[in-house]
Amino acid sequence: MKIAVASGKGGTGKTTVAVNLALSLQDIQLLDCDVEEPNANLFLQKSVDRVEDVSILVPQIDDDLCNCCGDCVAFCQYNALAALPNKVMVFESLCHGCGGCKLVCPEKAITETGRNIGYIEKSSGNGLDFYHGILCIGDAMASPLIQRLKCYADENKTIILDAPPGTACPMITTLKDVDYCILVTEPTPFGLHDLKLAVEVVEKMSIPAGIIINQDAEGYSEVEEFCKSKNIPIILRIPYDRRIAEMYSKGIPFAEELPGWKEKFREMYEQIKRIIE
Ligand code: SF4
Ligand code: SF4
Q1: Which of 56, 57, 60, 81 to mutate to test the pocket of ligand 1 (most atoms within 8 A of CB)?
Q2: Which is nearest to 122 in space by CA: 48, 28, 42, 52?
Q3: 46: which of 37, 120, 123, 235 fits an S-S bond (Cβ 3.0–4.6 Å)?
Q4: How many other C-beta atoms are found inside a 10 Å radius of the C-beta of residue 156?
Q5: Average pLDDT over residues 197-218
Q6: Do 160 and 244 fall within a single domain?
């Protein structure tokens, strides 16, 4: 079973939820897919080993063979190729490594070369396999790195994917093929605004979803009304609690310290299993 933990925006407690859920269960794999800013291991404090440097294939053009027909430029949807009067320029940092330009070139003028975009690290022990991807600083190719990271998913385990914030390609790449999505939000107008965007994504991808309200407190009921209107269950509420905030600031998973929380996460997990089955 693959469960993604996502949110429409950063800072809602998505990683806190992913880590605390992982630590509450047994035989779990946690993949931190927030490759631009992976921070799950700040809470886990695991010593990690590098398992792979990740590259994508980018085109190299043989100017002697290229007749400047422009087919490759027209094909590339990412503006990674530009036609000059007598040659084609490659902007490697924009290339997604799809390989399409090579296929459409009638002159066989395109070969490919690897460009490093980041690396993957792992650790295991105590019933938790942990992997994260780390994107090279300044690189924009988060999605190919996430795709590669997801190849480490062990189908015999429950897999928790900590998704990148927002609703752009990296979040969608993370959510592809998951069985369930936990959306973490806060009871504020900003939280609701971004939750609506995230719900739109899971609806379009036909992924069953449940909501966790983090920093839950009286006074703003619009998130609940929205969940009701969309028929999306609220599967957990994490209260606005100074002790949880203090533990967060020290990188301590609160389920490890506050009694009863591991049980709550386990109950939520059982609820998710019933929904999926
Ligand atoms: S490999 Fe794909 S993304 Fe990269 S330049 Fe060619 S067509 Fe564009
Ligand atoms: S498709 Fe091939 S021949 Fe045409 S412009 Fe691109 S590299 Fe040159």
Answers
A1: 81
A2: 48
A3: 123
A4: 8
A5: 95
A6: yes
Domain co-membership, 246 together with 139: yes
In this structure, the residue with its CA closest to atom 1 of ligand 2 is 105
| Ligand 2 first shell, C-beta below 6 A | 61, 66-72, 88, 105, 107, 109-110
208 lines ligand 1 (CB under 6 A): no
- Taking the CA of residue 75 as reference, the ligand 1 atom at the shortest distance is 7
Q: What is the domain extent for residue 186?
A: 2-54+117-276
Give the Cα separation of 10 and 75 in Å (integer): 34
Give how many domains the chain has, as a whole number: 2
Q: Is the CB of 59 under 6 A from ligand 1?
A: yes
- The model carries a pTM of 0.91
Mean pLDDT score, 196-216:
96
pLDDT in tens, 137-154: 999 999 999 999 999 999
Name the residue with the closest Cα to ligand 2, atom 6. 72
Cα 231 to Cα 178: distance, rounded to the nearest angstrom: 20
- From atom 8 of ligand 1, which residue's Cα is the shortest distance away? 76
